[in-house]
């Protein structure tokens, strides 16, 4: 991991094993469906953040407010001073998404467990069903930085209508090729959550998120392999990643920003679930950007 641009934001299983009882660290599992993950087994001492129930806004399509975020973390015994180590189901999709949210809400030290649940299970490391109960803290969001993390629909639409995609900005669709071409309207994991139309944002290139990880362990590939995968993505332009709802886009955002050192990367978290459901908006089918 030492070759990555920011090796400090990634930890391995040995680090976690060595720090299971370290009170300066909070291990947090983030699941889309905790009933098939955290509730079955989790890393000893890990607390649970449920993606839909704890981090999504209860009434509108957005994230919890800073005040709600503070309450969630305080209840879990997480303070501003804690080193937070995130991992989870779906190949760390939602852990990476939560890392992105933690950064947008200004947490100082947050890291990802390389390989997440997949690698932990593969190595046969200790697990638990016990739910820890840490003392409540008084977590405070010290800043909110959406500007350098998030792209909104109107910004992407403006880029597309002005013909700037591929010129002034690189738009990366990190979904599978079948989703990108429009052959399918949702990934197999969410087959019942299809968009109205299939296809991709005009000008977007397709680099599926899965190319960045070892399929057996879920760990990120070595930096030289990642550099080849993203070799055609220029570092001197702004990069916007998107997928269906933002979780896979955040995974690629993490790779580009923290592992490869790209200076300007943001996530369009509205993604295809927003774009492909809007009346009259341009959508392209096929393999060409």
UniProtKB/TrEMBL annotation:
What terms describe the molecular function in GO for this protein?
thiosulfate-cyanide sulfurtransferase activity
What are the record keywords, sorted? Repeat, Transferase
Outline the extent of the Rhodanese domain: 21-129, 169-284
Stored CDD domains: TST_Repeat_1 (cd01448), TST_Repeat_2 (cd01449)
Using the record, list the residue span of the signal peptide; answer none if the entry has no such feature: none
Q: Which InterPro entries match?
A: Rhodanese-like_dom (IPR001763), Rhodanese-like_dom_sf (IPR036873), Thiosulfate_sulfurtransferase (IPR051126), Thiosulphate_STrfase_CS (IPR001307)
PROSITE patterns named among the record's database cross-references: RHODANESE_1, RHODANESE_3
**This chain belongs to which protein, by name?**
Rhodanese-related sulfurtransferase
Q: Which organism is it from?
A: Metallosphaera yellowstonensis MK1
């Amino acid at each position: 991991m030492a070759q990555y641009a920011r090796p400090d934001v990634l930890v391995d299983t040995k680090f976690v094993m060595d720090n299971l009882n370290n009170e300066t660290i909070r291990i947090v599992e983030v699941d889309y469906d905790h009933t098939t993950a955290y509730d079955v087994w989790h890393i000893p001492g890990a607390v649970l953040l449920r993606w839909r129930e704890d981090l999504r806004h209860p009434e509108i399509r957005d994230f919890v407010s800073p005040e709600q975020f503070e309450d969630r973390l305080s209840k879990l015994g997480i303070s501003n001073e804690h080193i937070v180590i995130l991992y989870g189901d779906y190949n760390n999709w939602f852990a990476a998404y939560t890392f992105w949210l933690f950064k947008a809400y200004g947490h100082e030290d947050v890291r990802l467990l390389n390989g997440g649940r997949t690698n932990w299970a593969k190595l046969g490391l200790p697990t638990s069903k016990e739910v820890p109960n840490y003392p409540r803290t008084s977590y405070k969001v010290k800043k909110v930085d959406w500007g350098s993390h998030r792209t909104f629909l109107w910004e992407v639409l403006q880029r597309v209508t002005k013909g700037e995609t591929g010129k002034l900005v690189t738009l990366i669709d990190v979904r599978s090729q079948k989703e990108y071409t429009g052959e399918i309207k949702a990934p197999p994991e969410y087959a019942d959550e299809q968009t109205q139309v299939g296809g991709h944002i005009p000008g977007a290139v397709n680099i599926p998120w899965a190319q960045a990880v070892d399929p057996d362990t879920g760990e990120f590939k070595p930096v030289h392999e990642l550099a080849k995968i993203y070799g055609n993505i220029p570092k001197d332009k702004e990069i916007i990643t998107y997928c269906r709802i933002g979780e896979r886009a955040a995974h690629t955002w993490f790779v580009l920003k923290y592992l490869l050192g790209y200076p300007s990367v943001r996530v369009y978290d509205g993604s295809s679930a927003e774009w492909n459901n809007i009346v009259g908006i341009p959508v392209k089918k096929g393999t060409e950007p």
